[in-house]
Design brief:
By secondary structure, this protein is α/β, with parallel strands linked by helices. It is built from seven helices and 13 strands.
């Protein structure tokens, strides 16, 4: 047992991905930079969130799925700097990806990273996924947790919004991913009768401190649409009765997978 632990530790110390992740985590927060974790440059807006996302997407392969379709159609709500897009294009070079990202500065990073990897078959819509077309206040955090808000904040901008529902009836969707920082319940309530052509869905559920959680609404929409649910905790408290953990205004975050 001890030999195995030492072997695993040595592997981590020698793994270039792990070394780069450790380097990234030592960098200051919320400052842009460049990593060569893919042996080619990729731009990030925040080193810590980039390292965390890389681990989830490329090491844990949270967005992996199997399909006989060589050109799967993927809708990515909350594309950020494009890590998921790069992952899917490596998994399925022929994939067609429709990506939504509202923050104009982060969109620049998304475009630069797609260009760096020579990716094709990608359409970026510089809007926030929402339940209506229009404009909305958006709170930036210069990482991966910007969100639509109703109140003004110290760094709030006005962004365009796109109603998701019309995009769900055009063609069969192999994967719908929604990581939209608290807007997921409103969006899915609006789409509850338009999910029949979605084969798989991933939703990151966000529970904000002091606000109604609405997890029951989200699960109801997915189960009524015919999905079988699998839930993984992402951010949680070990002893919530004693010490309720809070992070970026949230007290719980779940990864929710819908399978058919």
């Amino acid at each position: 047992m001890a030999t195995r632990v030492i072997h695993d530790l040595a592997k981590k110390l020698l793994d270039p991905n792990e070394r780069e992740i450790r380097r990234l985590r030592r960098l200051p927060r919320f400052q842009p930079g460049v990593s060569k974790i893919f042996k080619r440059p990729i731009k990030f807006v925040d080193a810590a969130s980039f390292a965390s996302s890389f681990r989830s997407i490329f090491l844990h392969r949270i967005y992996e799925f199997a399909t006989d379709n060589p050109c799967p159609y993927i809708i990515d709500g909350g594309a950020n700097i494009g890590l998921a897009t790069i992952y899917w294009k490596r998994l399925f070079p022929g994939a067609h990806i429709l990506a939504f990202e509202p923050d104009p500065k982060i969109c620049q990073f998304f475009i630069a990273n797609c260009d760096s990897f020579g990716l094709e078959g990608i359409q970026l819509i510089e809007k926030a996924v929402w339940n209506a077309n229009g404009v909305h206040q958006f709170a930036r955090d210069y990482a991966d947790s910007g969100n639509l808000v109703g109140d003004q904040s110290s760094d709030t901008i006005e962004v365009q919004t796109a109603r998701l529902r019309p995009f769900l009836v055009e063609k069969t969707i192999d994967l719908l991913k929604l990581d939209i920082e608290g807007a997921e319940v409103d969006v899915l309530n609006d789409c509850q009768f338009s999910l029949t052509r979605v084969k798989r869905i991933f939703v990151e559920f966000h529970s904000f401190c002091g606000k109604a959680q609405r997890l029951d609404e989200l699960l109801s929409v997915l189960t009524q649409a015919g999905f079988r649910i699998h839930i993984q905790p992402d951010m949680y408290s070990w002893k919530p009765f004693v010490n309720l953990r809070e992070s970026f205004g949230m007290d719980n975050r779940l990864n929710i997978f819908g399978l058919r």
